[in-house]
Amino acid sequence: MAAALALYPTRSWLAALRAPVAHIAFAASFVPSFLAAPRPFSWAIPSLPSLLELMPPWLLAVPKKKTSHSRKAMRSANKGLKDKQNLVHCESCGSPKLAHNLCPKCYRELNIGWKAKNRS
């Protein structure tokens, strides 16, 4: 299209667009009528050469080779446990606990007391 515009600078861009369409209509007049006639409606389902046409290509993504034990181990090497950075000492009993959490030792003593109180 750009080549047609460059070859004929005197023509307008609209005329350059219309030229190929007129050529196609002119060529269609030489085609025999039995070939140019539309096909009749059919209820038949078109045949599929393979099932690959039904599924998009990203569904068939599979690894080419088996992942070795060494590669799996290297991939999961950085997934280990990490040290806690938010440990503090409980103010009442002095045992270590997570910051902004109840002390398990103090909570256990309180829970035993509440259950004994509810029983009696």
Q: What is the overall silhouette?
A: elongated
Indicate the structural class: mainly alpha
Strand order of the largest sheet: 1-2
Order of helices and strands: HHHHEEH
Helix content: 40-55%
Summarize the structure.
By secondary structure, this protein is mostly helical.
Task: Itemize the secondary structure elements and their pairings.
Elements (H helix, E strand, L loop, with lengths): L1 H6 L5 H16 L4 H4 L32 H7 L11 E3 L6 E3 L5 H16 L1
Antiparallel strand pairs: 1-2
Structure description:
The chain has 120 residues and is mainly α. 41% of the residues lie in helices and 5% in strands. The chain contains five helices and two strands; from the N terminus they run ααααββα. It has helices at 2-7, 13-28, 33-36, 69-75, 104-119, and strands at 87-89, 96-98. A two-stranded antiparallel sheet has the order 1-2. The longest helix is centred in the N-terminal third of the chain and has 16 residues, at 13-28. The chain starts with a helix and ends with a helix. The relative contact order is 0.04. The model has no long low-confidence stretch (mean pLDDT 75).
